[in-house]
Design goal:
Blueprint: E1 2-6, H1 11-27, E2 32-36, H2 39-44, E3 52-55, E4 58-62, H3 68-77
Parallel strand pairs: 1-2
Antiparallel strand pairs: 1-3, 3-4
Helix pairs in contact: 1-3
Length: about 80
């Protein structure tokens, strides 16, 4: 599983990355989590609002900060 946290590196983006790693730990999933700050890459992913979460090339969340529980549910289904 390849996960990108898309955003400027603000506190919400940092929190999304931390919550994503926590959710992965809860599920005992092995994944590479990358912070993507390049605006060209973010736009290429079709993201207009950050923070955003992309899992294996699919944007699952954009423009909001989900809870760890919500992320756990999302990643369980991916």
């Amino acid at each position: 599983m390849y996960i990108r946290v898309l955003g400027s590196g603000c506190s919400k983006c940092t929190t999304l990355a931390a919550r994503t790693r926590e959710a992965l730990g809860r599920l005992d999933l092995d994944a590479e989590v990358v912070d993507e700050h390049d605006l060209v890459e973010i736009a290429a992913a079709g993201v207009m609002r950050t923070p955003a979460l992309e899992v294996d090339g699919r944007v699952l969340i954009a423009g909001r900060l989900p809870s760890t529980d919500e992320l756990t549910d999302l990643l369980r289904g991916s």
